[in-house]
């Protein structure tokens, strides 16, 4: 099923978890619980050491997952081991995508740097441009496609720098989701909307990820700016309850993205040493609440013309 | 020099979308005020550098070093800039620019606290509220600088995630910026980050080489054969090099921190050095493509140096590019040699240098000193060393680190430590 199809019957509920948080096995269970709770698409975080777009909740999830041994290679195994049928989107930072070809090519740890370090005091050789040229994002995208990932979200890759990734995604049939901020308008918005596919991630407010007690009214304005574009609009950043979900869908969103509120459950379970099964149950029930909220939001929405 | 933010393949703008409008606004302001001197911005900047900052700094002949190394050794005395380091050149420029842009809040990251104190001084001077992000570990290592920032009226926000050092502080400042872009300017501390920061910080720092180039002609009637500067992010480095880049007769040496060893522990994700130019590889960190210390998956490694100002896993994209093209030679000096050089300069020239700066002198000793290793000496007859800062901030760590080592020329550390 393609990402866009996931929006076909009713609002899409798109939960996020960091893969491998807090450990590989529990994380598999947690992601599967999201599907039971009604997920239409699942965003899986591949943790990067410098997650500049994340608030404290997801930063800590990233730390737990990295400490649990998550790597790009493990991540792809994780996706293969997952028993879910909804489409999966990988959310990660560009350096991991960009470097993947290098690590594959070298297999083990960086031999050239070990060699360099043998001569403690030597100068850096001027690098030959041709030799240094990276294979770019293609190997990562090829691998992602081969394990069944449907799309990518890369928070530190603006449309201006996304050419090579967009090309690789086209080659291997992946969608590339862009994040539209409350400050994105005019030419920037257009450039982005030319590149986007699958859905747009509408960032509900400025700042970083994190659950909020209230949802922002910047959302309505963002949705209005996007009204003319024929691609599903999923709103995220701060949604934490069924009631939020309902309100966001009522104001015109085609889907909701929820991360920190779910990650909080994983974090609490980890801190308190809760049985993973119980944590999975709680994830499933919050997922269901969010999904039900989103569905309730549509029924109250003023009817709007069918998308073509 | 490029104004499109790319240096070969390096540079660019790899930032969250929420920051892009702020970055575009900054790009526009950079072009108008800095490059175009609109509303007399650069004139005011130069005046304030003179009157508040104490510029120009001297290019001083180092008599005893000249004798020791049997050549003309000159010191560009950035340690005499107000605050004790080159950092003010950039901080003053950016805070002033923020005022011209109508921003009424300043944020900045700091590692050792040098950039934080420079920014705090500039903000007090120009009357703008200021918040500094600093890793919790660095706060504990650099108490005096924390007090200096507070004395100047800035708030200091501890960063507790990760290892609590510069890398995390930069990430955290970017998060604040993404939340408050509309009224806030982020004063980045080196020639790193997304365009236009690397170019803009270089332009503010290039007053160093502009002065040095003229002073060299006045004193020696010619340009130097070589310029040496330490390199963390590379702002004093690019500042000292910028005006010499087109002078083919002047060799440029960027001296990185070799730390305790150039070997890398991939398993632990630790590089016990900060030599990104020498041992790093191409990647994307904090908004720019450049050379960085990363493991084979692309995770950023923890760096190390005896000098916290060099302790960073990346380096400015323009400097990385100039090394790739061969215009700049990247070399590195380890903790021990830097510390020895710290003592040597203190004793021979009456200048206690910052531990960062000491790395540059460590290289001079290695290729030209009495125990020269035979490593190629490309420095020539007339050498300029950029003294990026003074060492007052480092006294405590210099005493501790010296106590742990056996450094011939150091005074007896028992006097300071009471035997510990
Ligand atoms: C005195 C001094 N020199 C050098 C540096 C390194 O920074 P950069 O490489 O940007 O000049 C610092 C940073 O704190 C510093 O305080």
TrEMBL record, chain A:
Enzyme class per UniProt: lyase
Q: Where is the sequence biased in composition, kind Basic and acidic residues? A: 117-132
Q: Which InterPro entries does the record associate with it?
A: Aldolase_TIM, RibuloseP-bd_barrel, Trp_synthase_alpha_AS, Trp_synthase_suA
Reactions it catalyzes = (1S,2R)-1-C-(indol-3-yl)glycerol 3-phosphate + L-serine = D-glyceraldehyde 3-phosphate + L-tryptophan + H2O
Its pathway, per UniProt, is:
Amino-acid biosynthesis; L-tryptophan biosynthesis; L-tryptophan from chorismate: step 5/5
Q: Which GO CC terms are listed, alphabetically?
A: cytosol
Region described as Disordered: spans on this chain: 107-139
Q: What does this protein do?
A: The alpha subunit is responsible for the aldol cleavage of indoleglycerol phosphate to indole and glyceraldehyde 3-phosphate.
Q: What is this protein called?
A: Tryptophan synthase alpha chain
Automatic annotation (TrEMBL), chain B:
Cofactor(s) annotated in UniProt? pyridoxal 5'-phosphate
Metabolic or biological pathway? Amino-acid biosynthesis; L-tryptophan biosynthesis; L-tryptophan from chorismate: step 5/5
An example Gene Ontology molecular-function term? tryptophan synthase activity
Q: What class of enzyme is it?
A: lyase
Q: Which organism is it from?
A: Haloferax profundi
Keywords recorded for this protein, A-Z: Amino-acid biosynthesis, Aromatic amino acid biosynthesis, Lyase, Pyridoxal phosphate, Tryptophan biosynthesis
Give the coiled coil ranges. Answer: none
Description of how the protein assembles with itself and partners = Tetramer of two alpha and two beta chains.
Q: Which reaction does it catalyse?
A: (1S,2R)-1-C-(indol-3-yl)glycerol 3-phosphate + L-serine = D-glyceraldehyde 3-phosphate + L-tryptophan + H2O
What's the EC number here?
4.2.1.20
Q: Please report the stretch or stretches of sequence annotated as the Tryptophan synthase beta chain-like PALP domain.
A: 53-366
Which family does the UniProt entry place this protein in?
Belongs to the TrpB family.
Q: Which residues carry this modification: N6-(pyridoxal phosphate)lysine?
A: 87
Q: Which HAMAP family match?
A: Trp_synth_beta (MF_00133)
PROSITE patterns linked: TRP_SYNTHASE_BETA (PS00168)
Which Gene3D superfamilies does the annotation name?
3.40.50.1100
Q: Which SUPFAM superfamilies match?
A: Tryptophan synthase beta subunit-like PLP-dependent enzymes
Q: Kindly provide the name given to this protein in its UniProt entry.
A: Tryptophan synthase beta chain
């Amino acid at each position: 099923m393609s990402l866009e199809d996931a929006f076909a019957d009713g609002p899409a509920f798109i939960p996020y978890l960091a893969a491998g948080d807090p450990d590989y096995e529990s994380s598999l269970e947690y992601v599967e619980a999201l599907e039971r709770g009604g997920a239409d698409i699942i965003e899986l975080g591949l943790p990067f050491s410098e997650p500049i777009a994340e608030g404290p909740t997801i930063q800590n999830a990233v730390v737990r997952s990295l400490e649990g041994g998550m790597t790009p290679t493990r991540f792809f195994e994780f996706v293969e081991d997952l028993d879910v049928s909804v489409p999966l989107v990988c959310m990660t930072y560009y350096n991991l995508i960009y470097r993947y070809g290098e690590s594959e090519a070298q297999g083990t740890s960086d031999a050239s740097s070990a060699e360099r370090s043998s001569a403690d005091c030597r100068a850096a050789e001027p690098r030959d441009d041709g030799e240094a040229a990276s294979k770019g994002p293609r190997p990562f995208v090829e691998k992602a496609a081969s394990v069944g990932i449907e799309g990518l979200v890369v928070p530190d890759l603006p449309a201006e720098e996304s050419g090579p990734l967009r090309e690789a995604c086209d080659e291997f049939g992946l969608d590339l989701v862009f994040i539209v901020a409350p400050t994105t308008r005019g030419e920037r918005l257009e450039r982005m909307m030319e590149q986007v596919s699958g859905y747009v991630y509408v960032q509900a407010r400025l700042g970083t990820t994190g659950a909020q007690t209230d949802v922002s009214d910047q959302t309505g304005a963002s949705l209005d700016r996007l009204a003319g574009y024929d691609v599903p609009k999923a709103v995220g950043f701060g949604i934490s309850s069924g009631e939020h979900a309902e309100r966001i869908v009522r104001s015109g969103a085609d889907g909701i993205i929820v991360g920190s509120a779910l990650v909080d459950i994983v974090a609490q379970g980890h801190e308190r040493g809760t049985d993973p099964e119980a944590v999975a149950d709680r994830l499933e029930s919050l997922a269901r609440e969010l999904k039900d909220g989103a569905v309730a939001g549509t029924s109250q929405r003023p009817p709007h013309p069918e998308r073509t | 020099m490029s104004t499109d933010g790319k240096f070969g393949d390096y540079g660019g703008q790899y930032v969250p979308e929420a920051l892009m409008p702020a970055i575009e606004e900054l790009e526009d302001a950079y072009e108008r005020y800095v490059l175009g001197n609109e509303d007399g911005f650069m004139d005011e900047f130069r005046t304030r550098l003179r009157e508040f900052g104490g510029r120009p700094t001297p290019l001083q002949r180092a008599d005893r070093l000249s004798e020791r190394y049997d050549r003309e050794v000159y010191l560009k005395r950035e340690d005499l800039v107000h605050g004790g380091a080159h950092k003010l050149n950039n901080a003053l420029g950016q805070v002033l620019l923020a005022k011209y842009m109508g921003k009424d809040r300043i944020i900045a990251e700091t590692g050792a606290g040098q950039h934080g104190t420079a920014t705090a001084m500039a903000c007090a001077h120009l009357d703008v509220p200021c918040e500094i992000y600093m890793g919790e570990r660095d706060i504990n290592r650099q108490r005096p600088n924390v007090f200096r920032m507070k004395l100047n009226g800035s708030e200091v926000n501890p960063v507790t995630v990760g290892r609590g050092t510069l890398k995390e502080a930069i990430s955290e400042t970017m998060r604040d910026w993404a939340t408050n872009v509309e009224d806030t300017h982020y004063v980045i501390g080196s020639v790193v980050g997304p365009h236009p920061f690397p170019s803009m910080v270089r332009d503010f720092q290039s007053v160093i080489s502009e002065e040095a180039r003229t002073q060299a002609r006045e004193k020696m009637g010619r340009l130097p054969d070589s310029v040496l500067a330490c390199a963390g992010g590379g702002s004093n480095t690019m500042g000292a090099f910028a005006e010499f880049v087109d002078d083919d007769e002047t060799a440029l040496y960027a001296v990185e921190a070799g730390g305790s060893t150039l070997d890398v522990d991939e398993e632990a994700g630790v590089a016990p050095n900060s030599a990104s130019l020498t041992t790093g590889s191409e990647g994307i960190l904090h908004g720019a493509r450049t050379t960085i210390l990363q493991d084979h998956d692309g995770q950023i490694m923890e760096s190390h140096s005896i000098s916290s100002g060099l302790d960073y896993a990346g380096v400015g994209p323009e400097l990385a590019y100039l090394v790739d093209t061969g215009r700049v030679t990247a070399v590195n000096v380890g903790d021990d040699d830097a510390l020895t050089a710290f003592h040597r300069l203190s004793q021979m020239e009456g200048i206690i240098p910052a531990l960062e700066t000491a790395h540059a002198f460590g290289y001079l000793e290695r290729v030209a000193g009495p125990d020269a290793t035979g490593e190629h000496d490309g420095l020539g007859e007339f050498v300029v060393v950029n003294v990026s800062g003074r060492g007052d901030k480092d006294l405590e760590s210099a005493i501790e680190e010296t106590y742990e080592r056996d450094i011939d020329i150091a005074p007896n550390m028992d006097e300071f430590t009471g035997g510990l």
